[in-house]
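Narrative of accomplishments. A recurring question from our advisory board has been how the design workflow behaves on a single, concrete structure rather than in aggregate. To address it, we present the structure tokens for one chain from the evaluation set, followed by the sequence designed for it. No filtering or post-editing was applied between the two.
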């Protein structure tokens, strides 16, 4: 096989992607809502800035959601959470090689 895989680093990478997604989703939304509220209070709100703020949040959301879902399996390199045959999107094991999530086969 190829070079040894650092599973701990790979799962940490996964957790970073997941954390980033939730931070952008929740903190990003709060921030966007706060900015819109602030502009409203300051009488600077208009459709363009509102849409701009929401678009920025949605794009960050899509980028981080994509980064999370595209996480490659540390063992087989397949997309870990590949949607297969209408299954739930989040599985606790790899759809390609059945590696359980967070598992280190070298230990
Ligand atoms: Zn796999």
């Amino acid at each position: 096989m190829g070079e040894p895989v650092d599973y701990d680093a790979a799962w940490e990478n996964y957790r970073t992607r997941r954390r980033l997604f939730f931070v952008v989703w929740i903190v990003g939304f709060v921030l966007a809502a706060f900015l819109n509220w602030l502009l409203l209070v300051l009488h600077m709100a208009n459709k363009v800035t509102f849409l701009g703020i929401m678009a920025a949040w949605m794009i960050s959301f899509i980028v981080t959601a994509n980064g999370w879902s595209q996480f490659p399996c540390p063992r087989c390199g397949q997309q870990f959470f590949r949607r297969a045959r209408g299954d739930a999107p989040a599985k606790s094991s790899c759809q390609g090689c059945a590696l359980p999530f967070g598992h280190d086969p070298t230990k």
